[in-house]
Amino acid sequence: GSSLRGHGSAVVQVTLAGVAANIVDESDEFIRVIAANSPALVGDVILTADSGAVVTAENAWEYLDASNITRIEPASGQLGTRVTIYGSNLLAGGTVLESVSLAGSLALIEAYNNTVITVVASQGNGIAGTDDVLLSVDTGATVVKTDAWTYLPLSDIDAVLPNQGQVGSTVTVTGFSLFGGGTSLVSISLGGVDVTNIVESTNNKLVFVAPPHSTISEPLSLLLIADTGARTQQQNAFTYATA
């Protein structure tokens, strides 16, 4: 606008629909504030200068219904876990979801709208624990659900035996929480090749038959993906020996 200071030297108070806002910066042409919490209502924007001058825009601000996260599925996981956040007015009047934080760590946003958000959990800080889910949108608004996400202890592969062999070798993998908080594995790959012959699969033990592979005499990584999307990987897990 213009002459927002009303011929004073500063704007000292801004109210949005009767609720005082926090002034971030101000000038005679531009004022930026942070809205406080309020129930849904419509009202005037009122600027008060240090000179006592008042500038008013009638019915220029609307407080929307409060955003609400109703549930998070699953509410726990680890690296790769696909998480769905349900609620109402999740974009808090904005149009772009800029970030989603699960227990303090940014997640990869896959899709979103005002009622459903899908993200993929990052590795986090490597420490198991529970903390808030925080949504940040392009208006600067944030939506928080307290203590709503738990990072589980990271899955760990202790041993791959034997760690070398040939096509058809029976390989046993032991470790901790191989399902990554899920209930089963949906994908097992060795050096990028899918393992299809699975003899046994539990949360702490996996037995499979080594599939045909074109890479010989080079260590290959083993990747486990659970039904939640959780990922467990072991580098240099198995080497195909020459015949």
Describe this structure in words.
- Helix content is 0%, strand content 56%.
- By secondary structure, it is an all-beta fold.
- The strands form six sheets. Strands 8-15-14-10-11 form a five-stranded mixed β-sheet, with no helix packed on it.
- The mean pLDDT is 94.
| Class inferred from helices and paired strands | mainly beta
- Rounded mean pLDDT is 94
Strand order of the largest sheet: 8-15-14-10-11
The percentage of residues in β strands lies in over 45%
Helicity, in percent? under 10%
Helix count, DSSP H or I runs of 4 or more residues: 0
Question: Outline, from the CA principal axes?
Answer: elongated
Radius of gyration: 27 Å
Largest sheet: 5 strands, mixed
Low-confidence stretches: none
- Listing every helix as H and every strand as E from the N terminus to the C terminus, the arrangement reads EEEEEEEEEEEEEEEEEEEEEEEE
Write the layout of secondary structure elements.
Blueprint: E1 11-16, E2 19-20, E3 22-26, E4 31-34, E5 41-49, E6 54-63, E7 68-73, E8 76-77, E9 82-88, E10 97-102, E11 105-106, E12 108-112, E13 116-120, E14 129-137, E15 142-151, E16 156-161, E17 164-165, E18 170-176, E19 185-190, E20 193-194, E21 198-201, E22 205-209, E23 220-226, E24 231-240
Parallel strand pairs: 8-15, 17-24
Antiparallel strand pairs: 1-2, 1-5, 3-4, 5-6, 7-9, 9-13, 10-11, 10-14, 12-13, 14-15, 16-18, 18-22, 19-20, 19-23, 21-22, 23-24
